[in-house]
Amino acid sequence: MRRTDMSVEEKEDMAGGYMSYLRKGDPRSATMWLNSIFDKGLRKPNVEKEHCVP
Is the Cβ–Cβ distance between 14 and 37 less than 8 Å? Predict the structure, then answer.
């Protein structure tokens, strides 16, 4: 399920997790962490249609 109404706090949590890995000097985990978010929430068949607004 993909949500477009995420709160600022949720977005900061997402960014905070990514940045905490980078601060530890672990870019590979940071990338895997980001990918896990996208796998959970953003991959669905019509995602392109929703984002290609003229």
Answer: yes
For the question of whether the overall pTM of this predicted structure is more than 0.70, the answer is: no
Is residue 43 in some structural domain? yes
3-class SS of residue 44: coil
How confident is the model at residue 37, as a pLDDT? Answer: 76
Contact assessment for residue 34 and residue 18, using Cβ atoms and an 8 Å cutoff: yes
Give the structural domain span for 12.
8-51
What is the 3-state secondary structure of 3-31? CCCCCHHHHHHHHHHHHHHHHCCCHHHHH
Hey, what are 41's tokens? 């929430």
